[in-house]
Design brief:
181 residues; mainly alpha; Arc Repressor Mutant, subunit A; two-stranded antiparallel ribbon
Length: 181
């Protein structure tokens, strides 16, 4: 056994001992959090590599896709606060992404006539074209990434993650920000 393989086991044993002294049994919650974060990080890394030569980064594609979906539901403009919530990023981060998308000619901003302190965001024709050309390949890539799972396993995983997400929403002090994607 090498140090690199022994260390995680030793850490888990020591943590389990510490928690047992306080009456906490099991590390399932810690392990689920660790794995969810690791999967998220791996997804982000793989998608960034896949989209490296494309017209937009993964976060900007998700914003464009959200704007396209909002359009499909009859909402031609969206405010940045709504995008910040649905993309689960800060207002500063969404502003940076929107600035880049606007500079690329993929979105337009206009002042909200009802509240001149606010902006409304809309897709340009070029932005729609990017969504329509990139989305099938990106979704296929996401499907390919879970090809190691059987269809039943995929369905079970989706169900379990949905169940966990709903439970976390009930616990959250910010339920409006969770799950509105």
């Amino acid at each position: 056994m090498t140090i690199s393989t022994a260390l995680p086991q030793l850490i888990a044993e020591r943590l389990a001992e510490l928690l047992a002294e306080s009456g906490v049994n099991g590390l399932q919650g810690v392990e689920v959090l660790r794995l969810v974060r690791a999967v998220n990080s791996a997804y982000d890394s793989l998608l960034t590599d896949t989209m490296r030569n494309g017209p937009v980064t993964p976060p900007r594609w998700r914003i464009l896709l959200r704007l396209w979906l909002e359009e499909q539901m009859g909402c031609s403009t969206v405010n940045p606060t709504h995008l910040s919530r649905t993309q689960q990023v800060s207002k500063n981060t969404i502003s940076e992404h929107l600035r880049g998308l606007e500079e690329a000619g993929l979105i337009e901003r206009e002042l909200d006539r009802a509240d001149r302190r606010q902006f409304k965001i809309r897709l340009t024709e070029q932005g729609r074209a990017v969504v329509q050309s990139c989305t099938p390949g990106h979704v296929q890539r996401l499907n390919d990434l879970i090809a190691c799972l059987t269809p039943l396993e995929s369905e079970q995983l989706i169900g379990l993650l949905g169940k966990l997400h709903n439970a976390l929403q009930r616990e959250s002090t910010y339920p409006a920000q969770l799950g509105k994607n």
